[in-house]
Amino acid sequence: MKPDSTLYNPDPDYLQGLLVQAFPALPLSKRYEAAATALGITPRSLQAYVDAREAVSSRDIPYAAQYALECLARGEEICPVCKAQLTQQIEGENP
Asked: Is residue 1 part of a domain?
């Protein structure tokens, strides 16, 4: 599947669903760790995007991160170039 930003959906419930699909056997905290490792970001950064309880301090997840989570949910790997760009983009927002 190719990226299509018209499918952008930063809804925390949707993102939580992607985490469940990607890592169904893991508890929530371990899902954050596994997904963050796969994305090349910190679990805290991912949690700020995904956790609805963080709504006051959260920002919308970048489409690239949503797409990467969708790839994981489909059982696909994230391309190394995309991962590097995503890491730079997200971690650059959290100095």
From this structure: no
Kindly state whether residue 40 falls inside one of the protein's structural domains.
yes
How many structural domains compose the chain?
A: 1
Is residue 63 situated within a structural domain? yes
Q: pLDDT by residue (tens digit) across 56-75?
A: 455 788 888 899 999 999 99
Give the closest residue to 34 by CA, choosing from 79, 84, 85, 72: 72
pTM for the structure as a whole: 0.81
Residue 4 domain-assigned? no
